[in-house]
Write a structure and sequence with these properties.
Rossmann fold, alpha/beta, 13-stranded mixed β-sheet, 20 helices, 17% strand
Amino acid sequence: MKTSTLINILATCLATTNALSINAWFKQQIIDDNVVVIGEEVEPTNIFDQLAQSLGGAKEALTPEVRAAWKDMEARLGSKALKKKVEEYNSKASQITNRLKDVSKIFESSSQQFESLSNEKFNGYSLRTKKTNPEVLGLDTVNQYTGYLDVDSLDKHFFYWFFESRNDPKNDPIILWLNGGPGCSSSTGLFFELGPSSINATLQPVYNPYSWNSNASVIFLDQPVGVGYSYTGGEQVGDTATAGKDVFVFLELFFQKFPQFISNKFHIAGESYAGHYIPKFASEIINRADRSFDLTSVLIGNGITDPVIQAASYKPMACGEGGYKPVLEEEQCEQLEKDYPKCKVLGEICYKFQTALTCIAAQFYCDTKLFQPYAQTGLNPYDIRVPCADAGGNCYTGMDYTDDYLNLDYVKEAVGASNIDIFTGCDDTVYRNFIFSGDEAKPHQQYVAELIEKGVPVLLYAGDKDYICNWLGNHAWSDALDYEDHESFESQALKPWYTAENKLAGEVKNYKKFTFLRVYDAGHMVPYDQPAAALDMVNRWVAGDYSFGY
């Protein structure tokens, strides 16, 4: 019997674009001390032909570049490392189920805590809203609501937390906030960036005067399923397109539950992997003729949207061309320049075929060659100015306070999440599902073009001290975006951006309903680093000032 290679293992698993079967597939494998063995002989030289058949005739996707990238993965990871990754994956996959208390009792207790509604248009979906409000936690004095979107047939349950505006909830806009990851809870935005209160070291709320609900009502949604207080006893989600359908139904049922807000302007905002989520989710919304609500605009902060173009920005950002001193040696900078062309080729193959096979190859190569040199410096990938604090791997000690707070029993009880055994801010299983579907390397800028051409305003804002989704890359892809006003937007110059208090806060570029905003002295999480400027930004944007004064 021939031993398998990484190509055999991952490629066999990834022959389908459905990543949800990965965990089951892994569990069927036989793992010995050194290698993972597949039950029947597979000639490594024939694996790509087999993949071509399973990919539905896309044999042309199996280019020499893709073959070489997979062989490079095999050589770099090795069988022992692969075994460890499989064991870690299966361990995390079991934790996502084990972190739930007795699932059979959830709905028994839920019937006493929640009001529920459904709509025959969305068979199998229902929205639960807690009868008693969570104001007892002291995060804010405004009306608050928590609850779940339930997909009973698939045992999926999405948690949301809604804060009304501090100003005029009857007339102020609604903002849906999404964090990224993929696999991170929107509690990061709620408690660490733009929500009504942060959490301190003693696990007490600290009032935030710069909360985005100062002039808007804000929904924080934990998605995809399995993230934060959301949970699943069955189906998981492994790609952006699938996640978008659930979010659309959530919004439909949300506005059915709160009809007093359906005429308010509605915006979607988020950061990081929301550069994937938001364009696709917004496209799903505007293409649904049966929708009961309208989308006013989207805001994407330090997003990953056009991975091919954004990968080219790692070299200039690390080498002193992004407004900060060089953090890599000259030889490393030269090597990044040499390595990008192959990343670009693999990325473009991913864009063309958009299969797990082609996109994982691109993701692995580009990360290994272009991102890892920076990661090895020990600097925070989300803020080039400081070392990574390595607090649970997230580089910010304060995020641990949020996790600890949301694991307190009285907090879970107040928000109706008492069925959750362990809250995790970022879930590794969800992350792996997305990575193993090749989702991260896939293009999503085409949806941004669609939004603009259909009249939906788009704001791209970027803290200029972030590395991982840096401002250079976001500026570059916005300039390269293929849409009807491309040339007019690209020709605009960056101009100084002043807040309402006449403070220089960054640079802005706008043409009609498309805007790029560079935020000075902010990292990946702009509302965390520059809360006053971030609030000024969002207030002006939702008020319709798309040019920020120009």
